[in-house]
Amino acid sequence: MAVDGVRWSFSRQVLEKILMTIAHKPEMAETTGIETNQVSETIGVESLTHGNLRPVSSFEGQHEGQTEELLPGKVIFVGAGPGNPDLLTVRAREVLGNAVRAITDEQVLSGVRAFVATEIPVPEDKLQAAEDEYERICIEAKENGARRKPPRPAPPTAAEITEVSEATPAQIVELVQDALSYGGDVIRLVTGNPLSSDATLAEISAVSEAGLEFQVVPGMSLPATVPAFAGIALGSTYTETDVNGQDLDWDQLASAPQPLVLQARVDDLSRIAQELKARNMSLETPVSVTANGTTRLQRTYDTTLGLLHKLDAELSGPLVVTLGKGVDDRSKYSWWENRALYGWRVLVPRAREQAASMSARLSSHGAIPQEVPTISVEPPRNPAQMERAIKGIVEGRYQWVVLTSVNAVKAVWEKITEFGLDSRSFAGVRIAAVGEKTAAEIRALGITPELLPARTRQNAQGLVDVFPEYFEELDPVGRVLLPRADIATDVLVDGLTHLGWEVEDVVAYRTVRAAPPSADIRDMIKTGGFDAVAFTSSSTVKNLVGIAGKPHPRTIVACIGPMTAATAEELGLRVDVMPEIAEVPELIDALAEHVADLRAKGELPPPRKKRRRRKAS
Fold first, then answer.
1. Overall average pLDDT of the 280-290 stretch
2. Residue 484, beta-bridge partner list
3. Least crowded by CB within 10 Å, which of 128, 233, 351, 561?
4. Quick check: pTM over 0.85?
5. Helix %, strand %, coil % for the chain, to 5?
6. Are 246 and 265 in contact (CB under 8 A)?
């Protein structure tokens, strides 16, 4: 076996260790009861070591004069799979989550790296450093004239990740030994499947010869997975190999069972075409070249062996080249790249903590969501009004409490708990919710809402339409508490007043316009860099236009309901999509259906125009 020009041979003992890692160790066959001897990085925190808790050293990383002997860890070779984090095995996720230190290939994507140390508490010094850095950013922004605080960066993790590129097995052993000196296991995170790569096998051999204990967590290999995401049916028999910088037996490869699945780089394409044509493989042999396989950036290009060397496409990183039988049926089985929103960049103007479910729904349709917070939820300037309202709930001053958003539920509950109360405070009070999502948040607190509008009318007017009239002879109390945002519309107040109720409209929280996004994002919004934007409230429409400008006319505009759509139209936007049910899943599904319909009719928006560069004067 040749790696970096050096031939490697494995002793019988090393090969037995590799096989025993998978076949013999009982914990490799289970996804529960994982034992780690991870040393915590926080002072005085206890860490799990082979099922027992023990105090750790107060001075992590201090080699000289250490007061405690650290238990030796092991090296765990983890297969990161073909790239998509969703394809990580359950075992890989658990092993990654319970280790602090990882040595990773540069090709391993950030989504996979994010699983490292997820189960480990973040050290206090890291948390403090992150807080100090954010304070510095805020001071700098204020000095530059900003009136609002900039967005807070992602919180730190306990992970200590070292990235390597083209390292030799000996260099990997040095890195591993240094990482092991801190105590705990060390992850060696590699692309694909560890036991399918000659380079990784060489590393395993070197680690074993150095006397270090190791384990292997298999991953899905690129050749076995990427063609399936490209719609290529490999069948039960195919040939796979890595041609990237390898000395191959081209005669044997040309006569091997098809399809041929080759891992390559863009520089290898001409060599593949030349070598196979020289061995009389037909110039009409179908070829598919897939870049960024299994990710949202995946692109598959179809050509023939005769034209492979002329392929004009943006190809970067590892490629999977599939030749021969089954490739010409790709259009029949293609699914990943055929999703309605595949490759579309969709703007998500929501607060970061509320955007996750929406982004996940977009991703399921193949879109690339870009979250841009447009509002920041803050407490009211004068808390006395909310405090009187909570006191009124306890005293029975209201017959109804009407909740119009998840933020309103959270604001009320925060005050309830602040006063040492719980859900029993709502005894005798009737609860109304504007929609299913708000109702779900209420139920999570152990309270059942009594009134919701129809699923197709889940907005302020829909709630008014189903709200009962006030009858003095029947209703002991005629007041309704309406805790909501400071910029809410008057639809509910006017509607409930018309029904005879006395409405106490209380500011439960303020929606403050967020800081403007980066200059690049603003430019993309104005020049059509986003294919679509999905608005979930009137405030998100107003604030996005206020902090970043109006979306370009080529951008498809989707609004969750009629009030949001009315606001968008008032600001001069064309509304293309509005679902029958005002919920996030229905909004995104309606957008996907609309785009699929446009594609079928050949009426998709024109592509974004490339901006001309100014010539230097």
1. 95
2. 507
3. 128
4. no
5. 35, 20, 45
6. no
Please state the separation of Cα 446 from the chain's center in Å. Answer: 30
The conformation of residue 310, written as its DSSP 8-state character, comes to G
Question: How many helices (H) does the chain have, and how many strands (E)?
Answer: 20, 23
| Amino acid at residue number 473 | E
Q: What are the structure tokens assigned to 279, written together? A: 């061995």
Whole-number Cα distances in Å, 264 to 192, 290, 445: 14, 10, 54
In 3D, which of 404, 420, 422 has the Cα closest to residue 482? 404
Contact 137, 156 (CB under 8 A): no
CA distance 182 to 39: 8
What are the pLDDT digits (tens) for 529-540? 999 999 998 889
Q: What is the pLDDT of residues 175-207, one digit of tens each?
A: 999 999 999 999 999 999 999 888 999 999 999
- The DSSP string of 473-530 is TT-S--EEEEEEETT--SHHHHHHHHTT-EEEEEEEEEEEEPPP--HHHHHHHHHT--
Per residue, the 3-state secondary structure of 243-291, as one string, reads: CCCCCCCHHHHHCCCCCEEEEECHHHHHHHHHHHHCCCCCCCCEEEEEE
In this structure, is the dihedral angle defined by the CA atoms of residues 332, 334, 339 and 345, taken in order, positive or negative? negative
- 62 confidence band (pLDDT: 50, 70, 90): very low
Quick check: 557 and 587 in contact, CB under 8 A?
A: no
Q: What is the pLDDT of residues 152-182, one digit of tens each?
A: 888 999 999 999 988 999 999 999 999 999 9
Give the pLDDT of residue 612: 52
Which residue type is seen at 6? V
Length of the chain: 617
CB atoms closer than 10 angstroms to residue 26:
7
- The residue type found at 342 is Y
pLDDT-derived band at 450 (thresholds 50, 70, 90) equals very high
What's the rounded mean pLDDT across residues 87-101? 96
Q: In angstroms, rounded to a whole number, what is the distance separating the alpha carbons of residues 88 and 116?
A: 12
